[in-house]
Amino acid sequence: MRAADVQKDDAYISLDTQTTVGWPSLRGYLPPWLGGHNHTHESISRMLESLKIAIESYLEASVSTAEITVPFPISDTFFDTLRSTAKSESISIPATPAAPAGRLVAQPVYGIGPGECGYDPHVQDPAQAFLTVEYTRSALTALLVVEECGIYEDLRVLHETRFGSQESPQDRRAKLTTALGDIVKMPVEYDGEMLKSLSNVILLGESSQDKLLHDILKDVLSKQQPSGINTAVVDQHQEPVNPVFAASVGAARLNLFKLNFDRDEL
Known about the structure:
two-stranded antiparallel sheet; 8 helices; 38% helix; four-stranded mixed beta sheet; Nucleotidyltransferase, domain 5; 266 residues
């Protein structure tokens, strides 16, 4: 199993931000090192084109702006490719990528977010750490996130696309136990403060009800947090949360907040 900091692990993607003025018709035939589109660009382009056609047909209106979310914190290289590809389809993407789905649902769905933050020295809103696990047919993604006054930061990232493909149940359990055990290991230091426990556990995806996943989570959490608070939280996840829907709603809420904030500033 591969535990990777995907913000730094961009070996799987090639940068495609070069432009060749006056050669738009030839660029598709050039190799990436001469300014041509790479395979990732072509795949994303076809996906965005199909989505744009479907959405415009449904809305009966043109679409020029999009917010794109993925399960993990994407690298700068991948985001550059995403923006340049979207631009070729006449779609504008915000200058900064949206947060992963787990973070986007943290505040509106689970209430993990800013408390009484401000300059009043008597107001206390301490930092809190929480775990998000998105388990789908395509990948398992786990994030250890710290929130303080509405600012979210990913401290640890696990993104595995080959989990369980050719493994026995015993090997699958052992590898998942090790990986999730490393993710939730406490205490964790953040901005000079030692956080000794998790405040919540968020599960997403059609496979989030997997019994083995629940058993392993409860096992590794009980070893880190004897109180059993988060082992009980795992059992409360009776219905799977659709990460696509959750991320879409979260991104829409975030953009609505930004829009209202800008209007208030004006």
